[in-house]
Amino acid sequence: MELKDKVVVITGAGRGLGRGMAMTFAGKGANVAIVDLNEDDIAQTVALCEELGVKAKGFKVNVAQEAEVEKLFNDVVTEFGTLSGVVNNAGITRDGLLIKAKDGTITKMSAQQWQMVIDVNLTGVFLCAREAAAKMIELGVDEGVIVNISSLARHGSFGQTNYSAAKAGVVAMTEVWAKELSRYNIRTGAIAPGTINTDMIASMKPEARDRLIGAVPLKRLGEAENIAKAATFIFENDYFTGRVVEVDGGLR
Ligand code: NAD
Fold first, then answer.
1. What is the pTM of this model?
2. Is there an atom of ligand 1 within 6 Å of 44 CB?
3. Looking at ligand 1, which residue's alpha carbon is closest to its atom 7?
4. ipTM, interface predicted TM-score of the complex
5. Whether residue 20 has its Cβ less than 6 Å from ligand 1
């Protein structure tokens, strides 16, 4: 897919990796729909993308709410006239570790912590992908792309039963949709970032953060741009579908 003049929805694009991806897509000439919860963050990302000469519009939407997501994709098509793809990036953590510092295991994870992460990181991805696919099929687009942000944690991360389960589920859905949607030339891909320099990592305890960096063969954090490059690769490479791109400095 040639990104110039395409229309891409990016969730969780108010900051962090999502903002980085929005700016990279805009830099390649794609018009972008910026989805997030915080209006100030949304406005900042929209302004940064507009400076790159594309159309950008913000949408305050909770990706875990079905009615809001349905309205989002209707509004995007009304506003932009078409839809070329979605990057399902919005995500949260509610770790066992942060709540009970000394023994953050499954035994300390509440059902509420479990459900909050599943709602956003798994159900949110399902809802956005479903609505995006339905719209692209209805519009009869020549080509569509669904990118899902997974994580290295999909292999099982201490203190993160909820997050690891959701991020593994995201990869499974990526494979399902490759099989189901290829007939419409809608491709899928997942990205599994390692430790990337964003607010999510900044909120970790310094010792835990240093331990993480020490374990990375490249001995540094990744940057948002490293993930954005993987996202544009999936959009641009028309023989890529159903697979995971790992961008982790060799950590796994
Ligand atoms: P971040 O917290 O900086 O940004 C996440 C964004 O998602 C925020 O702007 C937040 O408001 C938004 N969001 C949260 N819940 C939402 C909801 N219900 N509806 C709409 N928007 C919502 O996080 P980040 O580090 O940029 O991470 C982005 C994605 O990458 C997440 O899916 C995360 O799990 C994944 N990831 C990050 C890292 C990392 O090292 N930063 C590593 C692996 C995977």
1. 0.96
2. no
3. 12
4. 0.99
5. no
Coil, helix or strand for 36?
strand
Q: Is position 252 within any domain?
A: no
Pocket test for ligand 1, best of 19, 23, 36 (most atoms within 8 A of CB): 36
Q: Are strands 186-193 and 85-88 parallel, antiparallel or unpaired?
A: unpaired
Give the number of the atom of ligand 1 that is nearest the alpha carbon of residue 224.
26
Residue 79 structural domain: 7-246
CB atoms within 10 A of CB 105: 12
* Cβ–ligand 1 contact at 222 (below 6 Å): no
The residue written with tokens 């949709």 in the block is 177
With respect to residue 102, please indicate whether it lies within any of the assigned structural domains: yes
Residue 185: the pLDDT is 98
Q: Does any domain span residue 108? A: yes
In a domain, 1, yes or no: no
Beta strands in the chain (DSSP E): 7-11, 31-36, 56-60, 85-88, 144-149, 186-193, 243-247
Give the number of domains in the chain.
1
Residue 208 has pLDDT above 90, yes or no: no
Q: What is the CATH number of the domain that holds 166?
A: 3.40.50.720
